Amino acid sequence: MKQDYIKTLFELYLEGKTDAEQEKNLMEYLADPANGDSEFHAIMEKAWKKQNILPDYSPEANKGLDEIWNKIEAGQPKSKRLYPVLKYAAAIVVIISAALGWYTYKKTQQPVELAIAFLSKTTQKGEKVKLMLPDSSIVYLGAGSKLTWPSHFVKGKLRNIRLEGEAFFEVKHDIKSPFIVHSGHMQTRVLGTSFNIYAYPKDGTFSVAVRTGKVGISENREGKLKQLSLLTPGMKLLYRLKEGNYTVRTERIAEVNAWIKNSFAFKHTSLAAMLKSLERYYNVHFELKGNNLNQCRFNATFTNKSISDIMEEIRVMSGKKMKYKIDTVNKIITVWGEGCQ
């Protein structure tokens, strides 16, 4: 009777239908090395045959495996806790198989959910917009950028969105549903905070600056996630995509999202990089002639300035060695010069 009862519990467990007491009884039975036979192989084989896809070896499945090990070991006195050698007993191998296959099997038993539609917004040069996501998070999307997000977020699941370009986020706090921004190989993970991401694919740089809360930055290469840094208010991470390295520095809180209010702050920034940013936000095209200005770097802040005023200020900062010409009809600004002082 006990064997039949345990078999029934095992089948119910694979179907996700056991209650807390039944699950406790099953785990205690399987944790006992004396029960390490092949009683349940037929049940497992039957369960595997019902699967039409490969087992799920994702981090979620591995987490499930860890949870099962913890449940098995929790009911045992220290003298009977599972040692590595006992993990190869037949009954334990069965549970490992159940853990790795469980999440896939479980999905096949659940009602099919309606597909989640994805929405996207692309801004043009000189354009910036304010968006509200399904969870009431606010996004300020910068010029020449693209944001993609699901039509709704599932409670308790990750809030995944994708960004190409620049955006400032004010994320609604939800400890059970981490908010993750995917930008190329980079991932930014938060629970609820405000931060700015700069991730234009062609620029070769990725940066995150934090205004409030904590932000985790990771690199995702070939499915392997590597955590780089945890940022707090006033910190900025700059990642160089080509070199594969990064630095973390301090940033004035007021400058994190200054561009929203038409204020642009540059710190020891090359002329080429400055012009690239200004090009997007002022909807102009720069033509930089020659290589004499490549080494020029500037510290500057421009607030509510016209592009002509900005160019004049840069000319003065260069010791008047940089020259420029503005074609207002075609929105082309030609830049040349002898270098910087």
From TrEMBL:
Keyword entries, A-Z: Membrane, Transmembrane, Transmembrane helix
Residue intervals of the FecR protein domain: 122-215
Protein FecR C-terminal domain boundaries: 264-328
The keyword Membrane is annotated on this UniProt entry: yes
Keyword Nuclease: no
Source organism, top-level taxon: Bacteria
Membrane-spanning intervals of the chain: 85-105
Name of the featured protein: FecR family protein
